[in-house]
Specification:
InterPro entries: ADH-like_N, ER, GroES-like_sf, NAD(P)-bd_dom_sf, Quin_OxRdtase/zeta-crystal_CS, Zinc-ADH_QOR/CCCR
Strand content: 25-35%
Organism: Rhodopirellula sallentina SM41
CATH class of the largest domain: Alpha Beta
CATH topology of the largest domain: Quinone Oxidoreductase, Chain A, domain 1
Number of domains: 2
Radius of gyration: 20 Å
GO molecular function, one term: RNA binding
Protein name: Zinc-containing alcohol dehydrogenase superfamily protein
Mean pLDDT: 97
Shape: globular
CATH architecture of the largest domain: Alpha-Beta Complex
Order of helices and strands: EEEHEEEEEHHEHEHEHEHEHEHHEHE
Low-confidence stretches: none
Keywords: Cytoplasm, NADP, RNA-binding
Length: about 325
């Protein structure tokens, strides 16, 4: 089969189109013919940082975590899938799990679900990592109907899904963005846009909550921005973040009695820990999508498998809007 191999890590490393053996299906897994995969920030981090990240696979490596495709073979003990089923998931591209930048991949049946019927392969491939992250964060933060929810980074991969899911769960959603294009997308998705470059946290908290603060803050920017989340949160509020690789003064969180939830959705893949929960989330996401409440935004640039390097560069450029997807 064709595969885009990376033989060395580093910012100047290149993907090489190679001919490799098609993997054999194994118990508890399915062999998938990959139709499309999407690029996430963690994929670019692996390519650039290599073994400085403990989750990077040994080289030569096939990267790519997210995929959508068709089941070609079913391993022993798998009853939920049959040959010909269209599936999607986040199931490889790190540690000892070969990824999706190839014609075929072997995926743990506990890390996939049937593809949403209303989405194309490209659209379905854009969802798994970001949508599982958004879903898990909102659930752990206890989202309920009628809450005022603030999403930081609402035009990004995780953020644009978090907006849609929060709306689906009945919240009154607000979201920050850094320019007219970002705000336009945020408002198209049904949230009230906040330009963080022209409005202070104090200003928009007063404007939208009467000074009380937001009941739930989903921070997909994280890092130093967590201090803005603390400031924007109501007393005893919940904050979910996807980026907490930082040192931070938690004093403001203490005096507000805030609960902080750190979401690292790769844990089931890395540690084989409760992988079936990812399958269940993907099934829930498929139902939400089929109900018309979740549609991924795709970047306008088109990429084929042999363009993997260009697709990674597109995401890293910061010029894209929506998920960067690679078609096989």
């Amino acid at each position: 089969m064709r595969a885009m191999l990376i033989k060395n890590y580093g910012k100047d490393s290149e993907f090489e189109l190679s001919d490799v053996a098609t993997p054999d299906v194994k118990p508890g897994h399915v062999l998938v013919q990959v139709a499309a995969s999407s690029v996430n920030t963690v994929d670019t981090m692996i390519r650039n940082m290599g073994k400085d990240l403990p989750l990077s696979p040994d080289t030569p490596a096939i990267l790519g975590m997210d995929f959508a495709g068709t089941v070609e073979a079913v391993g022993e003990g798998v009853d939920a899938y049959s040959v010909g089923d269209e599936v999607y998931g986040c199931a490889g591209g790190l540690a000892d799990l070969p990824g999706a930048l190839a014609d075929h991949m072997v995926a743990d049946a506990n890390l996939i679900a049937h593809k949403p019927k209303n989405l194309s392969m490209k659209e379905a491939a854009a969802l798994p990592l970001v949508a599982i992250t958004a879903y898990e964060g909102l659930m752990r933060a206890g989202i309920t109907q009628g809450q005022k929810v603030l999403v930081h980074g609402g035009s990004g991969g995780v953020g644009h899904v978090a907006i849609q899911l929060a709306k689906h769960f009945g919240a009154d959603v607000y979201s920050t963005g850094g320019g007219d294009q970002q705000i336009a997308l945020i408002e198209k998705l049904g949230a009230t846009g906040i330009n963080y470059k022209t409005e202070t946290v104090q200003d928009y908290v007063v404007k939208h909550t009467g000074g009380a603060g937001f009941d739930l803050v989903f921070d997909s920017v994280g890092g130093a921005n967590l201090t803005n989340s603390f400031e924007a949160a109501a007393l005893n509020a919940n904050i979910a973040t996807t980026v907490s690789l930082c040192e931070l003064d938690l004093t403001p969180a203490h005096f507000k009695g805030l609960s902080l939830h750190v979401v690292f959705m790769l844990i089931p893949m890395l540690h084989n820990h409760k992988r079936e929960e990812h399958a269940e989330i993907l099934r829930q996401l498929a139902q939400i999508s089929e109900a018309g409440a979740l549609t991924p935004v795709l970047d306008e640039e088109q990429f084929q498998l042999e363009d993997a390097g260009k697709a990674y560069a597109r995401l890293e450029s910061g010029k894209g809007m929506g998920k960067v997807v690679i078609e096989n």
